Amino acid sequence: MHPSELERYRLEGRMAPDPVRTKGLIDTAAGVSCVTPGVADRLLLDPVGRATLQTASGDIASNVYSVMVRVGWRELTPPDPIPVRAHVAEIGGAEMLVGLDVLSLGEFVLDGRQARFDLILPRRGPGT
After folding, report:
1. Quick check: 95 and 24 in contact, CB under 8 A?
2. Rounded distance, CA 39 to CA 36, Å?
3. What pLDDT, in 10s, does the model give residues 45-94?
C-alpha cells in the first residue's frame, strides 16, 4: 500500500492488509505495471482512479491502484519498496506484470545463453 493509505488505515483504527507475494511477469514492452483483480481484492485496495490501458488486444478502461512493490527477494538485502500506480488487468500465467515504470528505475540484465536475468534496482541508504 502507498504510505498515505497506510496512514489512513492507522488513523481509522483498521489493520493494513498483510503483504501479498505474487508471481510476476517482466514485460519490457509494457509502459505500466499491472495487478490482477484477485491481488487488488486480497490487498483490500480501493481504486485511486480509472485510466485507459493500452494492450496488445486494444485499449481497455482500467481501475488504477496505489501499491508498494518489492521486486525479487534476497534474504540479506531485501529490495526497497517502489511506489507504483498499477492498473488492474488479467495477466496470463502471473498475478503481476512488471512494466517499464519499475524496470526503468534500474538495470535489467539478460543472459540468454545461461537462461538467467538480474534486475538491479537502486537502494536507498540507511535512514533515507
Report:
1. yes
2. 5
3. 889 999 999 888 889 999 999 988 888 766 677 678 888 999 999 998 99
